[in-house]
Amino acid sequence: MTTLFIEVLVGGLIGLMFFGAIANAHAELEKAIFAGGCFWCMQPPFEKLDGVVSVVSGYTGGTGTDPTYEDYAEKGDIEAIEVTYDPAKISYSQLLSVFWRQINPTDAGGQFVDRGPQYRSAIFYNSEEQKQIAEKSKQELQKSGRFDKPIVTEILKASKFYKAEDYHQDYYKKNPIRYKFYRYSAGRDQYLEKIWGHDGNQKDLKESENKSQRLSQEDLRKKLTPIQFRVTQENGTEPAFQNEYWDNKKPGIYVDIVSGEPLFSSLDKFDSGTGWPSFTKPLEPQNIVEKEDRSFFTTRTEVRSRHADSHLGHVFNDGPAPTGLRYCMNSAALRFIPRDDLEKEGYGQYKKLFETN
Q: Which stretches of the chain are assigned E, i.e. beta strand?
């Protein structure tokens, strides 16, 4: 046996061992599927866990094939996440513990502001072992006395999991301010704080999310166009009749360009003849802050958004009935969400406003 042959043989054996180790490592990974309402809110808690390899938003549990965001509910699917994890580093029981701390397990009609069977909570088991662990975990939670209502979260056998569209993946990273506002307006954080208090998992999650959601002036300059930055951050005013929404007649809502907080509805929009989008009232009064403005040698009432503190425009007392007010806004401070895109953009609760219009 020649030296060269021995070297080739040894090299081949080492290669087989190396690739075999990689294959075994991947083979040891397991998957867990959880549904807890909006999948945007379910990804962050699991992605930060040591031992979790990936978290994917998607649809499962339905009877059709290849569901999309437009038809998954009609096909009987439910919004869910698929967690790929290393059981040597984190157990299925630990994942369940995190899962329970993200949801309202007593709500059979959806989760928080999102209503309907497509938003209900559920655990989809991939093995008999996962099923037994999930059932035991559910029983222990019910016995804990933490909830005064029955635990209704379903435990179902896993079926095919379909990955959701790319824009749904890691939404909290791609749209941090809008995600934060959505979570808050949905009531999820308030409920979890009430039930779990200053639980370590919730505290760590909130701190990590807050860090990623603070936008500096430099970040805003990158995010906004020059006119958007000048209007929202420097109290500027855009040219009349030369802005995006002054003549927009489409149905939908207007949100803050920075934070995404809902501000006005097309149902309250009217032609003021000024060349700026004008409304008789806010869609969400709590998202509006009014301040005295003494600039330009006169006294006016400035309008700002509460959460982003964006300058929006001014309000005047020369509007039509029923309010007699004219909220004169800058298009550059707003983003328009068409009626048909409300649910897709995370504003599904406002669809009912347009059902009879």
A: 30-36, 52-60, 78-85, 110-111, 114-115, 121-125, 154-157, 162-163, 252-256, 262-265, 269-270, 278-279, 288-293, 300-305, 311-316, 326-329, 334-338
